[in-house]
Design brief:
By secondary structure, the chain is an alpha/beta fold. It has one domain (about 5-110). The chain has 3 helices and 6 strands, in the order E-E-H-E-H-E-H-E-E. The chain has helices at about 35-45, 55-60, 80-95, and strands spanning about 5, 20-25, 45-50, 65-70, 100-105, 110. The chain has a 6-stranded mixed sheet, with helices on both faces. Helix 3 links the parallel strand 4 (about 65-70) and strand 5.
Length: about 110
């Protein structure tokens, strides 16, 4: 089963990230650097879910673990964010199994092996 590390800048109370397979940064370290997040995810074989482009860039020159799901939705109302992510999350989860990076946009999902 895949496990996910949810970045502190993403909603804490969010139904799609409420299972045992998801750990939110607020529960382990809200002020961690990108390197600390990366190292923790690597040590625990977690997929990082973030809006941070630095993590997306880093996976392009690294081998998993970790893997990265980069959410590129911009600013939107929480209701709209929740609706869109609920719709796209299953596809992102399926794609990250065989790819190092998945980027979620408002109109598409990209996967990079």
């Amino acid at each position: 089963m895949q496990r996910f590390l949810i970045d502190v800048n993403l909603p804490y109370r969010f139904s799609i990230w409420s299972g045992d397979n998801c750990l939110h940064m607020r529960d382990i370290g809200e002020n961690w650097t990108d390197t600390q997040i990366w190292d923790y995810a690597q040590q625990h074989n977690l997929t990082i879910v973030s809006k941070d482009a630095d993590l997306s860039d880093r996976i392009m020159i690294s081998l998993p673990p970790p893997r990265v799901i980069h959410i590129r939705l911009g600013n939107m109302r929480m209701h709209d964010f929740h609706s869109l992510m609920t719709k796209l999350w299953p596809q992102a989860v399926a794609l990250i199994e065989n790819n190092r990076l998945v980027r979620i946009y408002p109109d598409r999902i990209e996967a990079i092996g």
